[in-house]
Amino acid sequence: LETPIAAATEPRKLFGTNGIRGVPGRDLMLDFISEIGQSIGTYFGNGVILVGHDVRASSPTISKIIVSGLLASGANVADAGLAPTPALQFAVKKLGYRGGVIVTASHNPPQYNGIKVVGPDGVEISRDEELAVERIFFEKRYNRANWRNVGNFLPETRVLANYEAGIISHIDTSVIKNKTFKVVLDIGNGAQSVAAPYILENLGCKVTTINGHPDGDFPGRGPEPTPDVLRALSDTVKVVGADLGVAYDGDGDRSIFCDETGEVHWGDKSGSILLDYLCSSKPGAVIVTTVSTTQIVDIIAKRYNCKVIRTKVGSVDVSRAMVINTAEFGLEENGGFFFGPHIPVRDGAMTTALMLNALASKNRKFSDCFHSLPPFFQRKGKFECPNEKKKEVMKRIADHAKGDIEAIDGYKIWTDEKTWILLRPSGTEPLIRVFAESNERDKLDSVFQKYREIVSEAIGDVKSQSSLFPAVHS
Ligand code: MG
Fold first, then answer.
1. Does the active-site annotation cover 106?
2. Nearest to 465 by CA among 440, 442, 431
3. Which of 59, 68, 106, 367 does the annotation list as catalytic?
């Protein structure tokens, strides 16, 4: 086995796991952003490029600089303004753009921003295409248009209506409308503020929003919908007697669900409920998910004769694998759900509409759907580990591992048929990320403790932190 060190095998200099990220005024300077715009324009070559952005304070400005760079390279640009990332991605595909640029830092803290590039299919460009853009940038090979060839700039006002129509076309609206669902949406002050509440109202839902206004300071509960910040969602669901609650991340591509009792469930469990519903009418479908997602996915896939493909952790890896394998569905444990017939990217509003469709068709309480999943315990956390020790630590882990070991991303070690632990060295931080799952609580704790000790032997007493995700029992 080759020892996995994410940083050492990372050839790209600017693009990370989800576009180019940084703090404006510190990492993202005017010249840099403009030259990236020129490089992207040069890469696409011709056609019109759609540009849009999230709610961050710096987003309108960065968007304008990107547009300037694109125009200066001779590219034509359409400006969509504020929209959820998946709405922009779908617009690129459906409205026939040559490509798209989205200014967003997703769930990162307010001071961050980022630049994400999508191809004509609306999916983030591949790692090789990112490298091609980087080469144009570093070799300063970008086009400099003369006075006659400079690009045209037009507004694009159809993005949100196009997004809603696309979502609605995949669901049974009458079965949802008949239910008059009460839904609480925790927008987290993010980009779904301009889309999800209206889509749900048009589906006959009674919508209560919290943290509902777009605000780049994310004053409500921050842009990342982790279970520990969703207390207000949980409480509001109980107070208004809602059928379900949903929380989105900053740019609206991830969704975390809360059942009618106020219990918040992590993304691989809600994703499993959707898979169970969707695969029942698509036997033999292809599902793409990452190595860190629950084994419930495999159990459900087997039920409907579906095929599961596992990728590295990262939404672009899932999207690209879906494209290559013409997969119907994709999911991540962090609340990313990908519905291929719409567009193979994660999409918070599409996922919410599918969940309403599933609940209306099953005619069950949301909590019952969770209780009927096979019960598995999970632990997610991190071990602190200096960067220079990562290689040695990973080697020790591989030496100790007996039985099944997968090296798709870090090492995933199966200690019995229903117990695994995944250890992945972070590419950016002095950490090893740890995921573990088992059908028994004791086995989960002992495998976590065992690998904590192995890492401790290599680097001295290791500092660790983790959260338990209990099994949902009926
Ligand atoms: Mg996001």
1. yes
2. 431
3. 106
